User: Fold this.
Amino acid sequence: MTPAPVGEYRDAPNGGGNIIPPGLITTSKTIYTYVPGAICNPDKFTITTNAPFLTEPSNETRCEGQDYLLSPQVEGGKYYTKSGGPLTAGNIELIPNVDKITTNTRVFIYKPSTTLVGCYNEKSFLITFNKRPIIDSRGDIGPECNSYKLTPLTNGKYYENPNGVGLLPDNYEVKQTKTIYIYATNPNDSSCDKESSFVVTINNVMVDPAPAQLSHCVSFTFPPLPTPDNFYYDAPGGPNGVGNIIAPNTTIYALINAPILKTYYVYHEEISRGKICHNENPFTLIVAPKPVANAVDPLTTTKCDNFGTNDGIFEFNLKETTIRNEVLKGQTPDADFTLTFYNSKDDAENTKNPIPNPSTYQNKKPLSDSVWIRVQNNTVPVSCFDVTELKLKVNLLPEPKLQANYYLCEDYKTGTLLSPVTLDTGLNTSNYTFQWTLDGKPYGGNTFWIKTTQEGTYEVKATNKSTLCPKTASGRVIKYTPYLELIYSDAFDNPTFVSVYVLGSNSGNYEYQLDNQPFQESNIFINVSPGNHIISARDKDGHCNPAPLNVAIINYPKFFTPNGDRHNETWNIPHLALIYPNAPIHIYDRYGKLLKKISPSTEGWDGIFNGQPLPSDDYWFTVEYDEKGTSKIFKSHFALKR
Assistant:
């Protein structure tokens, strides 16, 4: 289509759409004339094309070095090197399945119309040949001794397998003979790649393995190596290093506090293609010294039995630092050794039945026992130990015996101490020493007993001279000042009684006695016969007894028999003489006639008045006396029996 004579051609009215430039129109379309600034733009026309149908082809890519072979054109078109098909001078037709394209080329598909002469359709596509990447090259390498480390690449990457499978680092160490691949792809076309390969040859020098057991106690003997030309060295590099060769069957020893911890080497070399290759197998050897389980000083495990009862059983702390230090005696470092405890030597040697709680172990046999200590060097997993017997001894404590309380008896009236108190431990000075205190202050000397007249708390520490085991006992000395107080029936009362009371400081637990009768629990005596009586009290716990008291029970005879048989011949109130010997007694007949005046201190009345015996009858009397601080007159009667 030629240019518009005025304005421009567009594909939409009124200046809309896109400008249509001059040139070939290949599809039917309506074209609008547009003149900028014109009042109206009414012109339009339609172009109808009858070009044959062709599908839009896709561009193709190949890698350099590959050929592109055209496939048959299924829509009836033909391939040309230029546009325009046969109408273009010098245009070359390309034959499918025959012509190979090897460089970047645009190919045109030309299809003429079968109905209109000179009418055709044309499509094109570009065939592009991408460059293959540049990669480094490596020649075959080796033989190398034992291994070879790859060198970095400038172009490409190392791979373990073809086609970029199994990426390897640039410094990969090859330890066996193998093919290594160098591979890369075009970053714009992953199918356009390049690959090369090379072989690394490794001479693997086989060296004998290290000895199986690397931890030992006391010594190690280098065993013979199974393969000829394998040798032990004590430093790397074999004959080319700084170490010394070690002959098989050489024995090395660890000393106390000097374990062996050293790396040794099994070395072997061989020649391949004129190249000497060697290899070595390092191994670290540990040889621990056998520990020494030293005997413990018996004094360390000799104890006084201040645990529980005094029965020869003690709770020992077998893990105390003193025991550990004496067993190890400077073997260092301390942390290298483990101490375990057993009840027998066999158990200790065979690690059977360890004592579960050694810090609270109680001896099985009273007074003396033994346990066994196993000392294990724990720097090696093998058995590396020694055992020793630990003798345990328990000394019994002295048994000083003091009463809880002792009693100083003091006379209530005079304040005089009746007797000192003896505190006796029950021990003797030949086997023990003694230290006494009174209320916390030293008292007395080194004696197993003391006499004292002082109140207070006494303490004695008895120490066994041979075992030096001490034990303390204490007792309290208490001052008692008991005395009796009596309450008794008045003269001539019936029934008669005596009530006994013990008074005074620290009075105790008493029983009571009337004259020589048995002691009784009750402090009251009933129907006490007239006369003088002795009243006593006795402390049932053996403490202080108060001084006895006399008491007079006063009563009168109810009859008398003056018949010459010398028995009960006179009548009097004799017991009144105990308190009022001169008390006047007047005797009367029933009619009030005074018959006789007597006193308790006289012989009494014989039943005669004016020289004549009086007949049997009741006779009356009065008596005047003082009792308990009061003047009294008592009047009653008695019988005269013939």
Notes: DSSP finds two helices and 51 strands in the chain. The two ends are 203 Å apart (CA to CA). Residues 215-288 form one domain.
